[in-house]
Design goal:
Layout lengths: L1 H17 L10 H19 L5 E2 L11 E2 L4 E4 L1 H11 L6 E3 L1 H23 L8 E2 L2 E2 L2 H9 L2 H20 L8 H12 L8 H14 L5 E3 L1 H15 L3 E4 L4 E3 L7 H9 L5 E2 L2 H25 L5 H21 L5 H15 L2 H13 L8 H20 L5 H25 L1 E4 L2 E4 L4 H29 L4 H7 L5 H9 L1 H21 L3 H10 L21 H5 L2 H21 L4 H4 L1 H4 L7 H10 L18 H17 L7 H17 L10 H18 L18
Antiparallel strand pairs: 1-10, 2-9, 3-8, 4-7, 5-6, 11-12
Helix pairs in contact: 2-11, 2-12, 4-5, 4-6, 4-8, 6-8, 7-8, 11-14, 12-13, 12-14, 13-14, 13-15, 13-17, 14-15, 15-16, 16-17, 19-20, 20-21, 20-27, 20-29, 21-27, 23-26, 27-28, 27-29, 28-29
Length: about 700
């Protein structure tokens, strides 16, 4: 028994050493309450319909005999709906769009403007064409013989005729020869039928009007016409006489029988508390699980970061409830998944997509299930790819390829779907136009989402891959200042970047984040660059002249404080600004503490520590280790070996661990080992020496 307990203690200690507790940034009570309220709203939207549910539906077995309590005419809602569906194509009213008519008129006037060049023989003009119109020899001769006045009169007649034709409405699919014939017919009333002016004018009008339309759909008039036709044809009604049997106990309720029962109030609607509570609890628990996934994946996330996925889930649930079964799963699942994978993480995006798919408040059956599966698979692909995309150009590719792939997938699904007709199973013919429209709408929504990303980044404090790449551009004003005003610090920064990036890459940490954070971690030294040894020239150290360890310690702390001020001034994202204080943590300023103790042995050590906080992420912890190791590694002599470098690195990292600097970073011992190996590989590159090439001495000869 004692051996078993001993093994358990060893196993637990091993787990603790390899998987340290991830320190989660606490949220204020007000923030947690606000997020909980959003979760409750989502749960209510997902479940409220279960509080008023009909006890029966068409197709159910009637539990009682029902007779009509009085004579009545009941509107057959199913037949009325079918009647509306059949009449909609015949009741689409179109009206003249004056704006489109004006554009077509301007195009015709532009074509007529080419006549000036032809008739006046402008140099370089093509006398065989007027825009898209080919000129015959007779037409060129006619143009050459026209005076300016007669040509203007003819142009006025052409414009007037086009106005008449447009006032009657122009259909986009009208054949070219039909427009040409109509123009010739109306122009021939004013001149001889074989006159070149008629041929030329009719060709100009036909080429300008062909393939265009000046009609637009008028929804109000269409609805009015639809109602008039329904009234004219008669609203389908079911005549019921008093005492007629509506349903018989034990038989199935027909669609008409259900309508009659509902008309007389014989369909009871009651709450289903158990089902409602189950759905409500499921939705609420799903929201809380989503927050837990986010907190587990990104412990340093702020409350407003958690508001984004919950807000998107709220919009999606409201859309499902509003549009019902007509909603497209692709259009409401894919764009938010892309946004979350870019702004937070792939894990959060996948969790959100799974929960949004689970909380479907309307039944999904038949083909709808297949479409939902396609939407889930597409969203999964977008989530995985979205977390890896490093530029806006890659995001734009998603707008093209994702809708196209989804269109093909749905088309194949519908083609393979079977339905029964008269006992014979046949393949379903997909409506390609509907699917294509859905794909185009999805592409438009994705484009709108990409345009919204910069705004959402600033609103919710997110940090996408593309934003990180932009921040790490060394031509940014703050980095240019650092390279000019503190060149030694900038060079030190670039060296640390190499170490930190390789360390992050070795353990699967965020390389883009640590690169950007490393570039900005010492920008506070711009406040007084000459007080830091890497920027000092001619061996002059102002700290020696100052000879006050306390003030020197304040100057070192100031580079952190001033760095945070610069981060706010240049609007650096919070995750980047966190590298400024956390790369120093609460480390001791050892040199000045030693100097102070020489003068006053009772001086407090706390006075010579940075204010912190200590690193709260793996990335800031790696940067702290890289910052401590960089100078020590560069100080190693040319004859140093890998063993010497490893010993130096381990000594520095061990001191950081013993000082409690890595406790909140969630970096494990095994990951630290990988980071050490990565630092050694970078050091090998740093110490690489080139051979010395011999340079022959010669005397420069100049011509006499």
């Amino acid at each position: 028994m004692a051996k078993i307990l001993s093994l358990k203690r060893i196993w637990r200690s091993l787990l603790n050493s390899q998987s340290p507790r991830r320190v989660i940034v606490p949220w204020a009570l007000a923030d947690r309450t606000g997020l909980l309220m959003v979760c409750l709203v989502i749960a209510i939207i997902s479940s409220y319909k279960l509080l008023d549910v009909p006890d029966l539906k068409p197709g159910d077995i009637a539990p009682f005999n029902a007779t009509a309590p009085k004579t009545a005419f009941v509107i057959d809602t199913a037949a009325l709906q079918q009647q509306r569906k059949d009449l909609i194509p015949r009741t689409s009213v179109q009206v003249i769009d004056k704006g489109e008519s004006q554009k077509i008129q301007e195009e015709l006037i532009k074509q007529l403007g080419y006549l000036e060049k032809v008739s006046s023989g402008t140099k370089g003009s093509n006398s065989f064409r007027i825009g898209p119109v080919n000129l015959t020899p007779k037409e060129r001769e006619w143009l050459a013989n026209q005076t300016t006045k007669s040509r203007k009169q003819w142009e006025g007649e052409i414009i007037l005729l086009s106005q008449k034709m447009l006032s009657q409405g122009l259909i986009k699919t009208l054949a070219h020869d039909q427009i040409l014939e109509s123009a010739k017919f109306q122009l021939s009333a004013q001149a001889e039928s074989n006159n070149p002016s008629i041929n030329l004018g009719s060709k100009l009008i036909a080429n300008t009007l062909f393939g265009k339309t000046n009609l637009q759909h008028d929804a109000a008039r269409s609805q009015q016409l639809l109602e008039e036709l329904i009234t004219k044809q008669g609203i389908p009604e079911i005549e019921v006489k008093k005492g007629d049997l509506i349903t018989k106990k034990g038989e199935r309720i027909t669609a008409k029988g259900y309508v009659v029962l509902d008309h007389f109030g014989l369909i009871r609607r009651s709450a289903r508390p158990l089902e409602w509570f189950g759905k409500f609890s499921e939705a609420l628990a799903s929201c809380l699980v989503l927050l837990m996934i986010m907190r587990r994946d990104k412990p340093s996330l702020k409350p407003k970061n958690g508001l984004l996925p919950l807000g998107l889930l709220l919009i999606v649930q409201a859309s499902k409830d509003w549009f019902g079964a007509a909603i497209s799963p692709l259009q409401i699942l894919v764009p938010p998944t892309l946004l979350l994978s870019q702004g937070i993480s792939t894990t959060t995006a996948l969790g959100w997509m799974a929960i949004a798919s689970l909380l479907w408040p309307v039944p999904v059956s038949g083909i709808g299930e297949g479409r939902l599966i396609i939407a889930v698979l597409t969203s999964t692909l977008v989530a995985i790819l979205g977390g890896r995309m490093r530029s806006r150009a890659q995001l734009l590719q998603v707008v093209v390829f994702v809708p196209f792939s989804a269109y093909l997938s749905q088309w194949v699904l519908l083609r393979s779907q079977l339905f029964s007709s008269g006992g014979v199973w046949r393949k379903l013919s997909p409506n390609s136009e509907t699917l294509l429209t859905e794909a185009l709408v999805l592409g438009a929504i994705l484009m709108f989402t990409i345009l919204l990303i910069p705004i959402i980044e600033n609103t919710f404090g997110l940090l996408t891959r593309a934003r990180l790449m932009e921040i790490s551009d060394q031509e940014k004003p703050l980095l240019r200042r650092l390279s000019k005003e503190a060149p030694g610090t900038f060079e030190h920064t670039l060296m640390i970047c190499g170490l930190a990036e390789e360390g992050a890459r070795s353990i699967g940490a965020d390389v883009d984040l640590i690169r950007s954070g490393a570039l900005y971690h010492d920008v506070g030294k711009l406040h007084a660059p000459e007080w830091f040894i890497e920027n000092q020239e001619n061996g002059v150290n102002p700290h020696e002249t100052l000879d006050d360890p306390l003030k020197s310690a304040d100057i070192l702390q100031a580079h952190v404080d001033e760095g945070l001020k610069l981060a706010r001034r240049y609007r650096l994202p919070t995750p980047i600004a966190d590298f400024i204080p956390e790369h120093q943590g609460t480390l001791k300023m050892g040199y000045f503490l030693h100097k102070a103790k020489e003068k006053n042995p009772s001086v407090e050590e706390k006075r010579f520590r940075y204010k912190g906080p200590v690193p709260r992420s793996k990335e800031t912890a790696i940067l702290m280790m890289a910052d401590g190791c960089e100078a020590a590694l560069r100080a190693l002599g040319p004859q140093s070996t890998d063993i010497d470098a490893e010993s130096t690195i381990r000594k520095i990292i061990r001191s950081r661990k013993l000082d409690g600097q890595l406790l909140k970073s969630s970096i494990s011992n095994s990951e630290i080992e990988l980071v050490i190996r990565a630092f050694i590989s970078v050091w090998r590159r740093m110490r690489h020496r080139r051979i010395k090439y011999p340079i022959s001495s010669f005397k420069a000869s100049y011509p006499a």
